Amino acid sequence: MYFVNLLPAIAYTLDMYRRTGEFFGINEALFSSALAAIIFSLLGAQPLTIVGVTGLISLFNFTIYDILSIYDISIYPQFMAWTGIWAAIFHWLVAIFNACDYMRYVTDFSSESFGMYVGIIYMIKGVEELVNEFKIAGSAGGYLACMIAILYFASVYALEKLGYGKIWKAGFRGILADYAYVFCTLFWVGFSHIPGTIKSTHIARVPISKAFAPTQSRSWLIDFWNLDVKWVFISMPFGFLVMLLFYYDHNVSSITAQARQFPLKKPGGFHWDFFLLGCTTFVAAILGLPMPNGLVPQAPVHTDSLTVYKTRLRIIPTAEGEDTEIRRPVVSAEAVVEQRVSHFVMGLALIGTMTGPLLVTLHTMPNAVFAGVFFVVGWGSIESNGILQKFVFLQAEERFIQRDEPMLQIRKRKIWLYIGIQFFTVAACVAISHTLAAIGFPVLIMLLIPLRILVVPRWFRLKELQILDDFTATNKMVLASLGGKPGLPEDSKEEDWGLERRRSENRFGVPRQRAGSLHR
Description:
Elements: H1 2-19, H2 26-43, E1 51-52, H3 55-68, H4 76-96, H5 108-162, H6 170-178, H7 180-191, H8 197-200, H9 229-257, H10 270-287, E2 293-294, H11 298-305, E3 307-318, E4 321-336, H12 341-353, H13 356-363, H14 367-383, H15 386-395, H16 412-432, H17 441-455, H18 462-468, H19 476-481, H20 499-508
Antiparallel strand pairs: 1-2, 3-4
């Protein structure tokens, strides 16, 4: 989990470092991740939710930098501090008035759209990192960086796929899959240091600063009290947008960490955790750190690593006789080791990474590895996404589709319409993210919820939505923390929803969460 949290955090920070005038550096990212990990592991109602630096706050931070560069870039540190202070205040108000209860109405329609958006953004960030290599290191360095990034992605992907395969023993497969990031990072970092032509190419490596010191020559405490009053109030709507982003991103991360396939016994506390997130946002703001929040890929991976799985053999007889039976492994989750130690130890390890020797070690890592990290995390969110799975179903030759497939009950044009709406919302979010209007992308993300509740039902029958969609929060422990079950339309029952998911789990068992995967 240390590597799964550290590597994406550095990848996002490299993007911020380059696009915020080198204000946010490695030490800021490590400090922010460690702060969040220690506070949430000790005080959080649900310590299984991993909290740290995300790619979306990176996008938010450098978009504000681009906007302020039009006016007065020198006020960027103070403006970001006040943005975080306002965001913290809005967090506390949301928590006090129990507004997190509305997350029980989030369905896979919006969760899948959000996951697809995040995956595409991360893939784009990986490409941007490689393009920057050509500018820094020239053609030779750029091509070497591309090779390392692509092969890093391929090797991590291959090792993670082994976890689902049948080669070797289950325990050995599990080690290769769970530690794919570690093995591949060590190998490709070492590869970049092979003496001769490769090492002399001088590709870009992780920039570092002094141990336990800010990247720029400043004190840790931002002098936010020196900002003009007009800019203090201008930062208020930006703080509100940060709260909107964290409201969706953090709560969805917490829901996925407590997803329906995990047999949890201890309930979470969404309102308290969101209040606590406001506290970490406030501290991060006045210290000049990137504001942490829930990590969507890492949070469920943490719970998965603590889950005890059992693989049983399912034998399917055929009409040709006993010797032609089909043997299929079915995975079931038996229990979850619910504790606070792993999250806390990870926070201590991140603090240790800020020491001089480990910072020097980070400096040996090529930036190309982190472009590969973007590809791994991005493709993981895309490959396992329900939008892509429905698209693949529509392309499949019908005679090879299993007759018990629930989507066969729906006309194909209705499935096209459903994923078409999702594609449109994803495209709108991606498009706005590449303009100065990217500051408003949290609004588009939040609009996915009323779009699904108020608009989509006008175009689909209830039976069609029960097959195509499902409520994201279905774990009883989660619903107990969100004010109970949501009101189901037309007196439908809970077991009537998510028919496609239920069929998949009955046939293959629950999906495992690997470092690059995102399941609801």
